[in-house]
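Let's study a protein:

===
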Amino acid sequence: MAPSIRIAGIFSLISLFFLSLSASAAPDAVTTLKNYLNGLNSLSADFRQVTLTPGSSGEQAFESAGRLFLRRPGLFRWEYDTPSKQLIVADGKRVYLQDTELNQVSHRSQNAALDGTPAQLLVSDRPVEEFFKLRPLSRDDGRAWVELEPKADDSQVVRLQIAFIDGQLDTLLMEDRFGQLTRFMFTNIKRNPKLSDALFEFKRPVGGDFLQID
């Protein structure tokens, strides 16, 4: 064997060796998700939410934006600022949805409302595999993607896809039973901030409709 060929072969083996080391050292997307959730106690972030028309090729139905707060286990506050004011509060027992324009509040059991949703994923302190089937996704966008399929048969959500950049939450995609796809993009994320109890206490407004769903 010619020396040049032999040397080239040796360098190829060395390259493959270091590539395999890099692959084994870098956590896969599922591990990234579990690590992120295991150390999560509270979170605040700005969000932009884009909902696509079912069956369309990316046609945008509407867009909204606001801010979210959560504290584990079981507490969250989701504030919509645009295009209209809405508030969703989970106090550990019930979830309240307040529509300011309609002057209406609806509420239901938290367990039923959150089944298979992104909120359940983020606010539950139980193992994620208890509620979702997990699998990593391969995409060439610099993000670590995980797909989650709810285990509950009656979940309104078909699948979630979550992306991380450098171990930090970046994007979440949600597909419901009607084929509607919603994308959440997060900015100004603060991990484990100290949050006031008052954020997760719903105060019933004076007047208007107060509807109990279950």
